[in-house]
Amino acid sequence: MVCPRWRHESKLSALHIRRACEASLKRLQTDYIDLYQMHHVDRNTPWEEIWEAFSVLRQEGKVLYFGSSNFAGWHLVEAQAAAKDMGMFGLVSEQSMYSLLRRTVELEVLPASIKHGIGVIPWSPLTGGLLGGVLRKEKEGRSAGAMVSAGLKIYGDAIAAYESFCDELGHDPADVALAWLLHQPGVTAPIIGPRTIAQLDNSLRALDIVLDESALTRLDEIFPGPGGAPENGVRKKHFAPEAYAW
Prior knowledge:
This protein is α/β, with parallel strands linked by helices. 43% of the residues lie in helices and 10% in strands.
């Protein structure tokens, strides 16, 4: 069977990895890349080919570390096993959607990442702005976008409870959302997208917020994760993927 030509010129084929890396180096005007991440899993390219291509880039000094994005837990395990077989260092990061409103990664991705030493980098930590104080902004006369408005129709009650709790804590909702992620095991740092220096300074306030057990429990009550909401005010200690067994 002859593979179609496009198969070698897209996704995670060795040829496309090399071409994409060379293009990135040219655009960035740099000699090497610190962290080179795969945007999505390629179901048709064997890991042996992927890691061989990555090993060449590392040997050439063009990339220091490799990561993934939007991988399932079993993809991470498969990638690390193949890397070990080939004497490679393996993945150092996984970039996943993760926030108080989007906690699916707690089912498999976080446990797998922690087990295999992969740092998790959450993207969309404010869920498109829903956790950024949207109701407060509306009261100030600032209109929300179409996606945020649609989200409020679904999560409006939870968002109202969340912003009320943030007022009790004395912190902005966006800062609490970032701080919560920093309190989660396996998380290295959330990805933020400030447009101004002031917005960057505001995001950095999250580093100084300490959420105690009662605060974390309340946030779990407002936004239950895959393991469910706390019972009788007590956070569940056994999380996915083994929560069902306890």
